[in-house]
Specification:
The structure is a single chain. This protein has one domain. It contains six helices and no strands. One of its GO terms (cellular component) is plasma membrane.
């Protein structure tokens, strides 16, 4: 059992490490978009797409970088007492807090799937029961949701990225849970 936990930890940490390292460069994409926005507003006609695209890139940067941040332990903690605790007490405290975080992420993931299903054109009450473009009752199925701005981009791509990011965060939290269990059982992580 502990061997399976260690294998899961290695696999999830490797995936989130790679995704996080790629997501780190999203800040340069964001800077490029904002630079173009400034230049176009100063010298040309302002581009309609720049500010909303900057928001989308920032969401992707933040959501996809979150699991890597958890993995590195660079998330914010109240370190007033935590730093003085023993490894065992830290593991117990982290175990309880990560269970709360897993519950919260499950709720967020359900909401993200529901919102993405809506943006893809499904207006039902259960996002996991979509039947591939079938008209159910009087509901309208298949019209894509767009932003209400002048640029009017489709919203499903960024919502899909949010699903991927939240799923990776959930996997990373389970990995952290397993690490805490292994620390409590005095097994190497």
């Amino acid at each position: 059992m502990f061997g399976m936990m260690q294998g899961y930890i290695r696999a999830v940490d490797a995936v989130n490490h790679r995704v996080g390292r790629v997501a780190m460069y999203g800040i340069f994409v964001l800077m490029g978009i904002l630079l173009w926005s400034s230049i176009s507003k100063t010298f040309f006609l302002p581009s309609l797409w720049t500010l909303e695209m900057a928001q989308f890139v920032m969401v992707a940067y933040y959501i996809l970088g979150g699991p890597y941040s958890i993995q590195l332990g660079s998330n914010v903690r109240m370190d007033l007492f935590y730093s003085q605790w023993s490894v065992r007490k830290k593991a117990w405290f982290d175990l309880v807090t990560v269970l709360c975080l897993i519950f919260y992420l499950c709720v967020l993931l359900y909401g993200a799937v529901s919102s993405t299903a809506y943006s893809l054109g499904y207006w039902g009450s259960e996002p996991f029961s979509y039947l591939g473009g079938v008209l159910i009752g009087t509901e309208e199925i298949g019209r894509m949701e767009r932003s209400s701005t002048a640029w009017r981009p489709y919203l499903w791509p960024i919502k899909s990225i949010m699903i991927v990011g939240m799923f990776l965060m959930l996997l990373q939290c389970i990995s952290e849970l397993f690490k805490d269990v292994l620390r409590l059982k005095d097994n190497p992580v």
